[in-house]
Amino acid sequence: MTGVGKKKGSRLALAAASLVVMGTLLCSPVGCGGGETGTTPTQPGLSGSLKIIGSNTLLPISTMWAEEFMKENPQVGIAVSGPGSGVGIAALINGTADICQASRPITPKEIDQAKERGRNPYETIIAYDALSIVVHPSNPVGELSIEQLSAIYTNQITNWKELGGNDAPIVVLSRDTNSGTHVFFKERVVQMSGLPTQDKSLEYGPDVLFLPSTEEGVVEVSHNPNAIFYSGLGYVTEGVKLLAIKKTADSPAVLPSIATVHDGSYPVSRPLFYYTDGEPTGIAKAFIDFALSARGQKMVEEVGYVPLP
Amino acid sequence: MGLVAGSLPPSRLLWQRVGFAFLLLCTLLIVVPIIALLMKIIISGAPAISWEFLSQPPSQAGKAGGIFPAIVGTLYLMVGTVVFSLPVGVLAAVYLAEYAGQNWVTRLINLAIVNLAGVPSIVYGLFGLGVFVLTFGFGMSLLAASLTLACQALAVVITASREALLAVPQEYREASLALAATKWQTVRHAVLPQALPGIVTGAVLAMSRAAGETAPILVVGAAFFLPALPHSPFDQFMALPYHLYTVAAHIPGVPKQTMWGVALVLVAVVLSFNSVAILLRWRARRRKIG
To answer: Do B139 and A60 touch (CB under 8 A)?
Structure first.
């Protein structure tokens, strides 16, 4: 019995050892880009690593910048992750991220928490996003004011006919609470910040459906003639219709586009942020400089976001 | 089914046939959706599979390129989970099955382990974030993620190992002790080898679950875009389930077949590990005495 046990034991040990060897072999021949952490500020020979954590909205832009930056600086390894602005800011406060990407500004409470841990959040605006309101292409309604949108999202207006559309109940779709987009929309549209009708006590209504992803919302709107949703311009597909938004009932109705965000006529645009601990230095600085450069900003346009003016 | 048709009256025979047909229907009800799902994944994902897809890093936020770092990251996670959970789990099971007394303390421990298995995986993720990422200072890393998933896997490993050990007939222990072996020698040489198939099953279940978990890893270290492979356990990593979730939910313009391709690769990785484990278990069972 002892002999058999020993044989089985050694066989399993061999299997485990081969797994480990396989793992190491897998790593070595295939290019391993990231090096050790270093802080060389000059472009040639830049090496080190960068962790970017935060908003999903910024994933298309950040990954694009990271890919280009790594092509030019092969010794730098950049890791870009979601899963949300809230998590990104928490990572900045805890020191587990180098750059936090956020689609909403950091709140004073979060700044206090960061200061308690000895971190100084430093804000850099890296692009803008035109937050678009989308409906089904068959929906006759073509424009809405912010006040009407607020009434829809607080469930005060519940039927499209109240807005000049079909006699059908409005299916109100929103992002969930982890999303920076959700927070921004609540402040700018639901609570109507900056307008005379501003009401900070307003919340999303009880019949609003919260979705975990923008993609899901856009797909739902393209199938549902009665749905309404808000999403970054980059996620809008041909299957949905953009609404022109009026700041107040008397303002002109404006469609979201790069031009209307730059001249300020589109009322629901938002800045997108990178937060660092203090002013960016080393690789973070080089990366953010690249992002803000003319080439970096051209890439922003390609993914459907609005470059800095 | 040993009944001879001629020994039953026709009406009873009919009812028996109806009964068996009903049981067959219930079995099909379970098996058919699984097969249909697998077929859907294979048919929708196969067009995306190419050597480039399997060996290249991602590009353009996952719309192009491949998923090689995600495959490697998932494999590292599976290995890490087993490395951390198997030794502790098996030894805990040995204690519970062989050494623990039949008292309220043991019952409490068993109850705790059963409850541990039911804790939602995101709770393990937050636990891992608080303990391994922050308090221990490992940061967002492969090490933190492996430890987190190992905690989750512990309940499965302990339960499967304990059941396997308890299933070994008492005669083996008695015979060993009768030959003047110590308790530990008995466990090590007479009981454990017999329980090996069950323990391997537990390890495989743990690995498969680790491969598919999304919620815990996204707060403890998984990255969406990381073309380089992790050099050390303290690096971040890509993983197939998180990659699939992000391209499906958050990146506009990803071709549908790419998403199905990632799903197909994930299912293939899990199934192939399961097959290897079934093979190991079968061979271990063949070598069992008696």
So the answer is: no
Chain B, nearest residue to A213 by Cα: B249
Q: Which residues contact B279 (CB under 8 A, 6 or more apart)?
A: none
How far apart (Å, rounded) are the C-alpha atoms in residues B226 and B73? 10
Q: How close, in Å, is residue B53 to chain A by CA atoms?
A: 14
Q: What is the pTM of this model?
A: 0.80
Distance between CA atoms of residues A89 and A276, nearest Å: 10
Task: Please state, for a pLDDT cut of 90, what percent of chain A lies above it.
Answer: 41
Distance from CA of A130 to the nearest CA of B (A): 15
User: What residue numbers bound the domain in which B113 lies?
Assistant: 66-289
Nearest to B61 among A57, A60, A96 (CB): A60
Residues of B in contact with A12 (CB under 8 A): 280
SS3 readout for B166-232: HHCCHHHHHHHHHCCCCHHHHHHHHHHHHHHHHHHHHHHHHHHHHHHCCHHHHHHCECCECCCCCCC
> Could you give the count of Cα atoms lying within 13 Å of B27 in the half-sphere of its Cβ?
6
Reduced to 3 states (helix: H, G, I; strand: E, B; else coil), residue B76 is helix
Q: Would you call B64 an interface residue with chain A, using a CB distance cutoff of 8 Å?
A: no
Could you read off the pLDDT of A290-301 as tens digits, one per residue?
999 999 999 998
Question: Beta partners for A210?
Answer: A174
CATH of domain A10-127+271-303: 3.40.190.10
DSSP annotation of A175: E
Burial grade of B32 (CB within 10 A; 0-12, 13-18, 19 or more): exposed
pLDDT digits (tens, 9 = 90+) for A227-260: 999 988 888 888 899 999 998 888 888 998 888 8
- B78's CB contacts (< 8 A; 6+ apart) are B207, B208, B210, B211, B273
CA distance B61 to B214: 18
pLDDT at A267 over 60: yes
pLDDT-wise least confident of A107-111, A215-219, B72-76, B170-174? A215-219
A1 interfaces chain B, CB cutoff of 8 Å: yes
The CATH number for A130-269, chosen from 3.40.50.1000, 3.40.630.30, 3.40.50.300, 3.40.190.10, is 3.40.190.10
Tokens at residue B278, please? Answer: 């079934």
Distance CA B122, CA B124 (A): 5
Contact between chains at A215 and B222 (C-beta distance less than 8 A): no
Residue A41 has pLDDT above 50, yes or no: no
